[in-house]
Write a structure and sequence with these properties.
Helix content: 25-40%
Structural class: alpha+beta
Radius of gyration: 25 Å
Distance between the termini: 70 Å
Strand content: 15-25%
Low-confidence stretches: 1-10, 243-277
Largest sheet: 7 strands, mixed
Shape: globular
Number of strands: 14
């Protein structure tokens, strides 16, 4: 039986009194005066104590490390199908709504508001959310299924993890494509992995498991209902009947490499080699906008985050560290660029789009390489290569950039990146009916340094090397080359994934 809510003692953070409001009750809380804090992602009482908000009084926060939790248990992304009679039995279904809010805030906060498998953040524009997933330990001798870890996963990684549910709901292709993209596994490796996961699921589904949720109860979390096997079996059957009433397609675990999926993520795939008239026809059909081929959906740092997850999966703990640092650098630069690409309040009132457009983590070719940021604005197209060195000591002397006494190839790489981008985007503009725009397209390479200090002896020819605090000034000081309509035209072509994946003549 659930506990009664405690007496209303406001829980504050800074100057705001926060509440534990379940999603299903948000409209009721809002009607009584609760307000939403977008930064904290929590409801709060603007005039405490407000009459009627007592039921959502925030309890003390859940500790970041739950009693007996192993945060190294079940690292990375893999297919993790729970036994059949445990389907739809998750932490959210086993605790009171208020305790679920406490747990959810803790899980996302300690993960830095990022997926702990692919490192992506929440993005409402592409319907990517952060969700809680349970890692269970199964004791075949005692028949106990014990909760060992709560991990923050994005909705894409969560779907890949629950491949059985993805099969039932007809999204198996999407789940497998994301699994390949994050882990770097080949089709045959994915096939073997899914086959092994399916065989393990079959063995575990042959028996009834007893849930052990002491990790939650020892943290003061209240169970909402008895977690008996009979209850869980009945709930699973009801949910399955409801799901199978939809247009679902159930596929068996593949024994041979699957066909090319219908839905593919935008950062780590090998799209068809399209050029010329084919590319023009492709972009003419607006159905691709906001779909898997639209690079405007890409989050900053997602390409590096995928590589970090792959390294963690293939090489173990620690192999992903430098890649995570790189992803943080790209996110920092993206935040600076957002000051240019986010419309001002006045422009929103006038319904004017911002003068600058940006694409993040633009995949180039059929490998794993990408351009950190492609900025399109009045000066033309700017390719931005981000390097994150925190407290590093950097010395620039022409084409040579020394980092902590070590020579790097950052400057030549930034220059080559811009040249290749100019060739790909220029040919795409020419093929899609913009030959004059292609002929005078200006490509400007920028090397953005996050952290550290740069001692400059001589500037790199043709490449702007700037610290993040100077980035906005550097970009807005560049001479204009495109008018607003031309910016929109270039952006409309550049945002399609196929533009960057073609082979150059």
């Amino acid at each position: 039986m659930a506990e009664q809510p405690p007496a209303y003692r406001p829980t504050t953070s800074g100057t705001r009194v926060y509440l534990d409001v379940p999603y299903s009750e948000k409209e009721a809380a809002k009607a009584l005066g609760a307000r939403w804090d977008q930064a904290a992602k929590r409801w709060y009482d603007p005039r405490p104590p407000t009459t009627g908000l007592d039921p959502w009084a925030a309890r003390p926060p859940v500790p970041d490390l739950l009693p007996g939790e192993d945060r190294a248990f079940g690292a990375g992304l893999f297919v993790d199908m729970v036994p059949r009679w445990c389907w739809f039995t998750n932490v959210r279904s086993c605790v009171t709504p208020q305790d679920w809010e406490r747990l959810r805030h803790m899980i996302t906060r300690r993960a830095g508001q990022r997926c702990e498998a692919c490192w992506a953040g929440e993005d409402r524009t592409v319907q990517r959310w952060l969700e809680a997933h349970e890692r269970w330990a199964y004791d075949d001798r005692t028949g106990v299924q014990a909760l060992r870890r709560l991990i923050c996963l994005c909705s894409d990684c969560h779907l890949s993890t629950h491949l059985g549910l993805a099969n039932v709901t007809g999204r198996a292709d999407q789940a497998l494509a994301h699994l390949r993209a994050v882990t770097g596994m080949t089709d045959s490796e994915v096939s073997r992995h899914v086959q092994a996961a399916g065989e393990l699921w079959t063995r575990r589904s042959a028996r009834v498991w007893t849930l052990d949720l002491t990790m939650l109860t020892d943290a003061g979390v209240t169970l909402a209902r008895p977690e008996t096997a009979a209850d869980r079996a009945a709930a699973a059957e009801r949910e399955l009947r409801d799901l199978r009433g939809t247009t679902a397609r159930v596929i068996p675990a593949p024994r041979t490499p699957p066909e090319q999926p219908q839905h593919r993520p935008t950062s780590r795939t090998e799209p068809p080699n399209r050029a010329g008239p084919d590319l023009a026809a492709l972009l003419a059909d607006s159905g691709w906008l906001n779909g898997p081929d639209d690079l405007a959906r890409n989050a900053p740092g997602i390409g590096v985050s995928y590589e970090a997850a792959r390294r963690l999966h293939t090489e173990g703990v620690g192999a992903d560290h430098s890649w995570r640092v790189g992803a943080d650098g790209e996110i920092t630069v993206a935040a600076v660029l957002s000051t240019l690409t986010t419309p001002s309040r006045l422009n929103r009132l006038r319904r004017r789009s911002p003068a600058w457009k940006v694409l993040h983590s633009v995949p180039v070719g059929t490998g794993r390489g990408d351009i950190d940021h492609v900025l399109i604005g009045p000066p033309g197209v700017v390719t931005i290569n981000t390097k994150h060195h925190r407290a590093g000591r950097l010395a620039l002397d022409g084409d040579e950039l020394i980092v902590n006494g070590r020579a790097t190839d950052y400057i030549p790489t930034a220059r080559r990146e811009a040249l290749r981008a100019a060739a790909l985007l220029g040919s795409a503009l020419d093929a899609t009916g913009h030959p004059e725009l292609a002929a005078r397209l200006t490509m400007r390479p920028v090397l953005a340094i996050v952290g550290g200090r740069v001692l400059i002896t001589s500037w790199a020819p043709g490449v702007s090397v700037v610290m993040t605090r100077q980035l906005t000034h550097t970009l807005t000081s560049m001479p204009p080359a495109l008018d607003p309509h031309e910016v929109d035209a270039v952006y409309g072509v550049a945002r399609h994934r196929a533009v960057w994946a073609r082979s150059l003549p």
